[in-house]
Design a protein that fits this description.
There is one protein chain. With 312 residues, this protein is an alpha/beta fold. The chain folds into two domains: 142 residues, Rossmann fold (3-Layer(aba) Sandwich); 148 residues, Rossmann fold (3-Layer(aba) Sandwich), CATH 3.40.50. Helices cover 37% and strands 14% of the residues. The protein is built from eleven helices and nine strands. The strands form two sheets. The protein has a five-stranded parallel β-sheet with strand order 7-6-5-8-9, covered by helices on one side. It has a four-stranded parallel β-sheet with strand order 2-1-3-4. β1, α2 and β2 form a beta-alpha-beta unit. α1 crosses α11, α5 packs across α6 and α5 packs across α11. The protein is globular, with a radius of gyration of 19 Å. Bound molecules: phosphoric acid mono(formamide)ester. The site of phosphoric acid mono(formamide)ester has 9 residues, from α2. Phosphoric acid mono(formamide)ester binds next to α2.
Length: 312
């Protein structure tokens, strides 16, 4: 495959290949091998039209650990403020020799359009309320490390599903991997087309907690919220927030996830976010391995294989 635009692009075999490759890369990194030569001579452009901490930094770290040259582009401070279009921006960067373009954009579908304009591989790093496939990959990687095979595992995704590209990509990828996914949200924070998603829907968080192997809390996306959609923060936290009392209702082996950034005290209590069940910091670390695997598989071609390490 040339691009990664949607989690639906991945068959079960594709997804397992990415996860196994990420595991192999993480093991190499744990042997204090900082860099692999795989993408030497290749250029990766990080094209960010929306703010990001985790995704932007981890794609940069991933590309550098594979020895690629990295160009970081942020719309803020660029000629986008003078009205330059996405297409002209992309063609300008391609003229500088991009083999891979990692794009985050506020418009759903922007990575798909970009893939039609540039010769290199396009990786979706989050487009509007649509998808965030590498987040789903790093989440699946984290679940596999903690819980083993995902076949039959019960994953509950809670919160602002309406605005969440993380939720959509996770539902698609996790069901491809055989997990049983339930989304829990206020009716006003569910997409109109939720019936077409391959998951169950519940409005009763307390009812699903004891049956969950994973609980994934979503950020309440105030910046995309129409005030009419949202109950008060207090009411939301009371009905859909994960506090210590609710966490105690989970099975002993269950893990608590959040893609970040978090609204502590809204969708997740600080003591839950910082608890031993939380994988939130682990998810960030795993993001580098998962993104290395994606770049390696899309751009690596027949260049030096994983086994050829460069210690630095
Ligand atoms: N999870 C995630 O995409 O975080 P950033 O917005 O900080 O990249």
């Amino acid at each position: 495959k040339r691009h990664l635009i949607s989690a639906a692009d991945l068959t079960r075999d594709d997804a397992l290949l990415v996860l196994d490759t990420a595991e192999e890369l993480a093991q190499i990194a744990s042997r204090a091998v900082k860099k692999l030569p795989t993408l030497r001579g290749r250029t990766v452009v990080n094209l960010f039209f929306e703010d990001s901490t985790r995704t932007r930094i981890s794609f940069e770290a991933a590309a550098k650990r594979l020895s690629a040259d990295v160009i970081n582009f942020s719309a803020k401070g660029s000629s986008v403020s003078k009205g330059e279009s996405l297409k002209d921006t992309a063609l300008t960067l391609e003229a500088m020799g991009a083999d891979g373009v990692v794009i985050r954009h506020g418009a759903s579908g922007a990575p798909h359009r970009l893939a039609g304009w540039v010769r290199g591989s396009v990786v979706n790093a989050g487009d509007g309320t649509h998808e965030h496939p590498t987040q789903a990959l790093l989440d699946a990687f984290t679940m596999r490390k903690r819980l083993g095979d995902l076949e039959g595992r019960r994953v509950t995704i809670v919160g602002d599903v309406l605005h969440s590209r993380v939720a959509r990509s996770n539902v698609l990828l996790l069901t491809t991997l055989g997990a049983d996914v339930t989304v829990v949200a206020p009716p006003t924070l569910l997409p109109v087309a939720i019936d077409t998603w391959p998951c169950s829907v519940s409005y009763d968080l307390d009812g699903v907690l004891p049956k969950s192997d994973v609980i994934m809390m979503l950020r309440v996306q105030q910046e995309r919220m129409n005030a009419a959609y949202f109950p008060t923060v207090r009411e939301y936290s009371r009905r859909y927030g994960l506090d210590a009392e609710r966490m105690a209702a989970l099975p002993d082996h269950a893990i608590v996830m959040h893609p970040g950034p978090m609204n502590r005290g809204v969708e997740i209590a600080a003591e839950v976010a910082d608890s031993v069940r939380s994988t939130i910091v682990e998810q960030v670390a795993n993001g580098v391995s998962a993104r290395m695997a994606v770049l390696y598989l899309l751009l690596g071609g027949s260049e030096p294989a994983i086994g050829q390490e460069v210690s630095q």
